[in-house]
Design a protein that fits this description.
The complex is a heterodimer of chains A (337) and B (677).
Chain A: H1 2-18, H2 22-33, H3 38-45, H4 54-78, H5 107-121, E1 125-126, E2 132-134, H6 135-138, E3 158-160, E4 163-165, H7 171-179, E5 184-193, E6 205-215, H8 220-235, E7 241-248, E8 251-260, E9 277-286, H9 288-293, E10 302-309, H10 310-318, H11 325-328, H12 331-334
Parallel strand pairs in A: 1-5
Antiparallel strand pairs in A: 2-4, 3-4, 5-6, 6-10, 7-8, 8-9, 9-10
Chain B: E1 2-4, H1 5-11, H2 19-28, E2 32-39, E3 42-48, H3 59-70, E4 92-94, E5 102-109, H4 118-126, H5 134-146, E6 150-154, E7 162-166, E8 172-174, E9 180-182, E10 188-191, E11 196-199, E12 203-204, E13 217-223, H6 226-236, H7 241-246, H8 254-270, E14 273-274, E15 278-281, E16 288-292, H9 294-301, H10 307-316, E17 320-324, E18 329-333, H11 343-354, H12 375-389, E19 393-394, E20 400-401, H13 403-408, E21 430-431, H14 436-447, E22 453-465, E23 470-482, H15 494-510, E24 515-518, E25 526-535, E26 538-546, H16 548-553, E27 560-566, H17 567-571, E28 589-597, H18 603-614, E29 618-627, E30 637-645, H19 654-672, E31 675-676
Parallel strand pairs in B: 4-7, 19-22
Antiparallel strand pairs in B: 1-3, 2-3, 5-13, 5-14, 5-15, 6-13, 7-10, 8-9, 10-11, 11-12, 16-18, 17-18, 20-21, 22-23, 23-27, 24-25, 25-26, 26-27, 28-30, 28-31, 29-30
Helix pairs in contact in B: 1-3, 4-5, 5-8, 12-15, 18-19
Classes of the chains: A alpha+beta (337), B alpha+beta (677).
Chain lengths: 337, 677
C-alpha cells in the first residue's frame, strides 16, 4: 500500500512538473484528486487495511494531499490564473437569495416623485389640497361658469351640491393663492375624479400634477422655456415640445403641449399615429379673472399654469398601453418598475 | 364640426393648397382637424371646436379662420334684404325676455315643398345628414353656413300669433323626431294661442312641421338664452344641432341676416313671396370696444412683435382697429366674436395667428423657495421607501368602492360613509373609509393569478363624512399572504411576525418609540390572532389574521395577514433627533435561562419582570428559543433567554451577576409562576 502511495506521489509530481497549461493541469488534478481520481481511490481502499496500519498511512496520505494541493495551486499561478479556480464546486450561476429582493414603489408614485424632483430643482414647492372640494374651487374661481358648455369636459362626481370630488388639481392653485402672496412657484400633485367609463385610456380616478408660477414679469415664453426643460429632464435631452393654441377657461392664452414622439423621435410611428407628436399637458397664462377671484391685481402680477396627467406621462415613459393596469395592481406589472 | 373642403373654398381663396395643408394650418392656429374624411369626392374636415368659439360652428366661421391663418381674402356670401310682395307681418309676443331676448318671424306664402336641387342635397349629405325637403334643407344649410339655427312652421297650422313663453309644468308635445316630450316650467316654448309649437331653440313640434302639403310658412330666426337651452336640452336628453349652437351662444348679429339669407334661398328654390320681418326684443348688436396695449402684449408674451404686425393680424380676423394711440389701441370686435372681451383675449388672438411655434423659449427668474417639503409628504415618502426596501410592493386601489365591499370586509356602513350622488355604478358608489377591501381585492387578484408569495402595501387616503363637513386622512395598509416563511424562527405564525418585524423596522426608521401590540379589541374581520397597535397609549391601528368567512367573500383561499394604521396618528409620534450614547466601557456577563410558562405569561410580561427586577443592570434580553413538546405541559411553552448584565461604572463580579440572575429567576417564578428548567 505504501508503495502504491509513493508511486502516486512520484507520478503526480512528474506530471505536474510537465504540465504546460492550466487546462492540462486541471485535467491532471481531476485524474488524481477528482471523485474517481487515483488518490481518491487510494483513500477509499484504505478501509480494507488492518486497523493498526491505518493511522500511519492515513497521516502520510493526508500529508501528500496537502502537498499536492499546494503544488497545484502554485503551479496554476504560473499560468496566470487566479487563485481559487481549483475550488469550483460552487455553481455561481445559481439564483441569488430571494430575501434580498426589493419591493417596488407603484409606477405612479415613481413618476410623481420624478416630476416633483424636476420642479423642486427649479425652486418650486409642493402643495396639496383636499380631494373633496366645492364647486367654487373646482369651477367658479377657475372661471368655469356652472352652466356652460366649457364644463362639459369637466364632468364631475357630486356628493351633494356644492360638494364634489375635484376633477382637476387646479383647485390647489386657488387655495394657495388665497393664502399666500406672490412670488409663487408651486406644484400640486394628487388624485382627481371624473365620471368616465373605464376603458384602455379612461379611468374615473387618476392623478394630476398642477404647476404654476406667479410673479411680476412672468411671460408666455417663460412657460415654454420651463416646459421644454421639464420635457428634456423627463423624456431625455432630445425631447422637444410644441405649443398648440387651445382653450381652458382658467388660462389665456392657452396651449396644448405636445412632446416629440419618444418612440420615433418625431419621424412618425404607430405610437404617435404618424404625427410625430404626443400630447402631454395643458398650459397657459393665468387668466386675469382667476387673479381677481383670489384678490390679486392682474395689472401687477402675471403667471403661468400647467396641468398634466400622471398616468399619461407614465404610459408614454414606460410604453404602457392600458390605463387600467395601474389600478389592477397585478404584481407581474408592478414588479417591472 | 364637419367642414366640407369644397364648401369652405366658396368663402375663402385657398388657391391650390391641398386639404391636408389647410388642415395643418388650421390645427396650428388652434382649430384641430382631428380627421379628414373623403365623402363623395369631397374632403370633409372634422374639427374640434372648443366651447369658447361658437362662431366656428359654421363653414363661414372656419373660413374666417382660414382667411386669417393663410392671409387670404374672405368671400362671405352677399345677403340682400328681402323685398317681398306679402304685406302681412306675423304677430309675435315675448312673454319671457330672459329666456328669449330676441325673436323674429316672417311669413312666406305660396311655396312649393319638394326635393332640393342637387347642389343643396349634396352639401347636406356632405354634412352627414339626409336631405329631407327643400325647406328643411335650406334651414340646415344656413345653420351650417353661418351657425344660426332657424325654423319653419307650417303657417296654416298655427292658431293666431306667436308667443314665446315658459312651458306649463307637465305640458306635453310630440317633437319632429316623433317622441312625446313632457316639459317643465323653466323651459321655453314657442306657442300659438292654443298650443306649443316648438321647444324654443331645441326642436319643433310634429304638428306644425313643414310637409309636402305646406303652402305658407312662418320662418323663425331668434336668439335664445344659452343657460336655459342647456338646461332644457339636458333635462329632456335631447341635443340637436340647434340646441348645441344656442347653448354655446349664437351671434346676435346673425339673427336678422340669416333670416334674410334663408328667405332669399327659399324664394329662389321653393318659389313663394315673403313678407316683412317682424323683429321683437333686442335690436342688432353693436360692436364691442376692447383696449389693447401693445407693450403689455409684448411683455406678457415675451415676444418682440411690432405694432403694425399686431394690427395686421387683428385686421385679418375682421377686427377693426378704431384708434391707435401711443400706448393703447382701441379694437372694435364684431358680434360674432363673443369670446373677445378683454385685453388678454386679444393677446391670445395675436400670438395664435402669429404662430405659437415662433414664440421664443425663455426661463423666468426663478425665485426659489427654501427646500421645505412639508413633513407629512416627507414622511409618506419615507414610509414608501422603507416598506419597498423591505420587499413590499406598493399598490394603488380605487378610492371609490361599493358599500358591499365594505360590508364583505365587515366594516360598518354608517352615516360616516360618503356616498356619491351620481356614481358610474354601484361598484363605485362610496368613498372608502378603510384601505382593507381594496387591499384584499388586490391580494385575491394576484393569488388567483399564480402569485405564491405576496407582500403589498397601500398608502392612501380614507374619507369620512362628519356632522359638519368631511375628513380625509392618510392611511397605511399592509398585507402578507403566501407560503414564504418569515420567521420568528419560522415556527409560529411566520407571516404575522414577518409583518410585525416590518412594522417595527418602520417605527424605528420614523423614530417612533413606545409601540405596544395588544391582543385585544380586534376589528370584526380578524380571527383571534392579532392585536391592536398602540403608541403612548393611543390606538393607531391593528394587525392580525383575517377570518376565513371574510376571505371567502374575496375569493381568497390562503391565510392573509393584514394591518391598517392611521398615518396621521402615527406621524404625531415621529421623532428624528438622534442622540449619541457612549459605548459601554465595562464588560458584560451573560446568563442563560430556560423557563416553562403558562398562557398568561406573554413575552412582553416576562420582559418587564426581568427589566424591573434587574433594573439598569440589565443590558439586553435575547429570546433564543421557544419550544413545545412532550416535556412541556399542554397549554404551556418553554422559552430560553440570554440575559446580558452590565454596570455603567465598574466590572460586575461573578458573584454579583449570579445574585442578580438568581433574583431575576425568583421573580419569574413568583410573579409569573414560571418553572425554571
Amino acid at each position: 500500500m505504501e508503495k502504491r502511495l509513493n508511486k502516486i506521489e512520484e507520478e503526480a509530481l512528474r506530471e505536474i512538473e510537465a504540465a504546460k497549461s492550466g487546462e492540462e493541469l486541471e485535467a491532471i488534478r481531476t485524474r488524481y484528486m477528482g471523485r474517481k481520481g487515483y488518490f481518491t481511490e487510494f483513500l477509499k481502499s484504505m478501509k480494507d487495511l488492518p486497523q493498526d496500519q491505518r493511522p500511519v498511512l492515513g497521516a502520510k496520505a493526508n500529508a501528500l494531499k496537502a502537498k499536492l494541493t499546494k503544488l497545484f495551486e502554485s503551479k496554476i499561478k504560473t499560468f496566470g490564473k487566479k487563485e481559487g479556480i481549483l475550488e469550483s464546486s460552487v455553481d455561481i450561476t445559481m439564483p441569488g437569495a430571494e430575501d434580498m429582493r426589493l419591493g417596488h414603489k407603484h409606477p405612479i408614485t415613481k413618476i410623481i416623485s420624478r416630476i416633483n424632483e424636476i420642479f423642486i430643482g427649479l425652486g418650486f414647492k409642493i402643495a396639496e389640497g383636499p380631494e373633496i372640494e366645492t364647486e367654487y374651487y373646482n369651477f367658479e374661481a377657475l372661471n368655469i361658469p356652472l352652466e356652460h358648455p366649457s364644463r362639459d369636459v369637466f364632468d364631475t362626481f357630486y356628493i351633494k351640491r356644492p360638494m364634489l370630488l375635484r376633477s382637476q388639481t387646479s383647485t390647489v392653485q386657488i387655495r394657495v393663492m388665497e393664502n399666500e402672496k406672490p412670488p409663487l412657484q408651486v406644484i400640486a400633485p394628487g388624485k382627481v375624479y371624473r365620471p368616465d367609463a373605464v376603458d384602455a385610456s379612461h379611468s374615473f380616478m387618476f392623478h394630476q400634477v398642477e404647476g404654476f408660477m406667479v410673479d411680476k414679469e412672468i411671460k408666455f415664453s417663460d412657460l415654454k422655456g420651463t416646459l421644454s426643460l421639464f420635457a428634456r429632464q423627463m423624456f431625455g435631452e432630445d425631447a422637444k415640445i410644441r405649443f398648440r393654441p387651445h382653450f381652458f377657461p382658467f388660462t389665456e392664452p392657452s396651449a396644448e403641449v405636445d412632446v416629440s414622439c419618444i418612440m420615433c423621435g418625431g419621424k412618425g410611428c404607430r405610437v404617435c399615429s404618424y404625427k410625430g407628436w404626443l400630447e402631454i399637458l395643458g398650459a397657459g397664462m393665468i387668466n386675469p379673472k382667476v387673479f381677481e377671484a383670489v384678490g390679486y391685481n392682474p395689472e401687477k402680477w402675471t403667471g403661468y399654469a400647467f396641468g398634466m396627467g400622471v398616468e399619461r406621462i407614465a404610459m408614454l415613459k414606460y410604453g404602457i398601453n392600458d390605463i387600467r393596469l395601474f389600478f389592477e395592481n397585478d404584481l407581474r406589472f408592478l414588479r417591472q418598475f | 364640426m364637419k367642414i366640407p373642403f369644397n364648401w369652405l373654398k366658396d368663402y375663402v381663396g385657398i388657391g391650390s393648397m391641398s386639404p391636408k395643408e389647410v388642415a395643418e394650418r388650421l390645427t396650428i392656429v388652434g382649430l384641430e382637424v382631428v380627421l379628414i374624411e373623403e365623402i363623395a369626392g369631397d374632403s370633409v374636415f372634422d374639427i374640434e371646436v372648443t366651447p369658447n368659439r361658437p362662431d366656428c360652428l359654421s363653414v363661414l366661421g372656419i373660413a374666417r379662420e382660414v382667411s386669417a391663418a393663410l392671409n387670404k381674402k374672405l368671400k362671405a356670401p352677399r345677403v340682400k334684404a328681402i323685398k317681398g310682395k306679402v304685406s302681412q307681418k306675423p304677430s309675435i309676443t315675448i312673454k319671457d325676455n330672459k329666456l328669449c331676448p330676441r325673436y323674429t318671424g316672417r311669413i312666406i306664402r305660396g311655396i312649393k315643398v319638394g326635393a332640393s336641387p342637387k347642389w343643396l342635397a349634396e352639401r347636406i349629405r356632405a354634412m352627414g345628414m339626409r336631405p329631407i325637403n327643400n325647406i328643411a334643407d335650406i334651414t340646415n344649410y344656413c345653420l351650417f353656413e353661418v351657425g344660426q339655427p332657424t325654423h319653419a312652421f307650417d303657417y296654416d297650422k298655427l292658431k293666431g300669433g306667436i308667443i314665446a313663453r315658459r312651458a306649463r309644468k307637465g305640458e306635453e308635445m310630440v317633437t319632429i323626431d316623433g317622441k312625446k316630450r313632457t316639459l317643465e316650467a323653466d323651459m321655453l316654448v314657442i306657442a300659438d294661442e292654443e298650443k306649443s309649437i316648438a321647444i324654443g331653440g331645441v326642436m319643433g313640434s310634429k304638428d306644425t312641421e313643414v310637409t309636402e302639403a305646406t303652402r305658407n310658412i312662418l320662418f323663425e330666426s331668434a336668439y335664445f338664452d344659452p343657460v336655459s337651452i342647456r338646461r332644457t336640452s339636458r333635462g329632456l336628453g335631447l341635443i340637436s344641432e340647434s340646441s348645441y349652437r344656442f347653448e354655446r351662444s349664437v351671434d346676435k348679429g346673425g339673427v336678422r341676416t340669416t333670416s334674410d339669407r334663408a328667405c332669399g334661398l327659399i324664394m329662389e328654390l321653393c318659389g313663394g313671396e315673403a313678407g316683412p320681418l317682424n323683429s321683437v326684443g333686442e335690436k342688432d348688436p353693436k360692436d364691442v370696444k376692447v383696449y389693447l396695449r401693445p407693450e403689455r402684449l409684448r411683455e406678457m408674451l415675451g415676444l418682440d412683435i411690432s405694432d403694425s404686425a399686431v394690427k395686421k393680424i387683428l385686421k385679418s380676423l375682421e377686427l377693426k382697429v378704431e384708434a391707435s394711440g401711443k400706448k393703447t389701441m382701441v379694437i372694435s370686435v364684431p358680434s360674432f366674436r363673443q369670446d373677445l372681451k378683454a385685453e388678454v383675449d386679444l393677446i391670445e388672438e395675436v400670438v395664435r395667428i402669429y404662430g405659437y411655434d415662433k414664440l421664443p423659449s425663455t426661463m423666468p427668474t426663478l425665485v426659489g423657495h427654501p427646500r421645505r417639503i412639508e413633513p407629512a409628504r416627507q414622511l409618506r415618502n419615507m414610509v414608501r421607501e422603507t416598506l419597498a426596501s423591505l420587499g413590499a410592493d406598493e399598490v394603488i386601489t380605487y378610492s371609490l368602492i361599493s358599500k358591499d365591499e365594505l360590508k364583505s370586509a365587515e366594516f360598518s356602513v354608517g352615516d360616516d360613509v360618503i356616498v356619491l350622488k351620481n356614481p358610474l355604478s354601484i361598484e363605485q358608489e362610496a368613498m372608502r373609509t378603510t384601505l382593507v377591501p381594496g387591499v384584499l381585492h388586490t391580494v385575491s387578484w394576484n393569488l388567483n393569478r399564480g402569485t405564491k408569495d405576496l407582500r403589498i402595501f397601500e398608502l392612501g387616503k380614507v374619507y369620512f363624512a362628519q356632522t359638519r363637513g368631511f375628513r380625509e386622512e392618510d392611511s397605511l395598509s399592509i398585507a402578507f399572504a403566501g407560503d414564504k416563511p418569515y420567521s420568528w424562527r419560522g415556527k409560529d405564525e411566520p407571516l404575522l411576525f414577518g409583518m410585525k418585524g416590518m412594522l417595527e423596522t418602520l417605527f424605528e426608521k420614523l423614530g417612533v418609540t413606545g409601540v405596544l401590540f395588544k391582543p385585544e379589541d380586534l376589528p370584526p374581520f380578524f380571527t383571534a390572532v392579532g392585536g391592536a397597535i398602540e403608541v403612548s397609549k393611543k390606538r393607531i391601528g391593528f394587525l392580525g389574521k383575517v377570518k376565513k368567512s371574510v376571505l371567502n367573500k374575496f375569493d381568497i383561499k390562503t391565510d392573509v395577514i393584514l394591518c391598517e394604521l392611521s398615518l396621521e396618528k402615527l406621524f404625531a409620534h415621529v421623532k428624528f433627533e438622534k442622540r449619541f450614547h457612549e459605548m459601554p466601557k465595562f464588560p458584560s456577563a451573560k446568563r442563560d435561562i430556560s423557563i416553562i410558562v403558562g398562557k398568561n405569561a406573554s413575552y412582553q410580561k416576562i420582559t418587564s419582570v426581568i427589566e424591573e427586577t434587574g433594573g439598569d443592570l440589565v443590558a439586553s434580553i435575547e429570546l433564543f428559543d421557544q419550544y413545545f413538546g412532550i416535556q412541556i405541559p399542554k397549554g404551556s411553552r418553554g422559552l430560553s433567554y440570554s440575559i446580558e448584565y452590565r454596570a455603567g461604572n465598574r466590572t460586575l463580579t461573578d458573584e454579583e451577576v449570579n445574585n442578580l440572575h438568581g433574583r431575576v429567576c425568583d421573580a419569574l417564578v413568583q410573579q409569573l409562576d414560571a418553572k425554571i428548567r
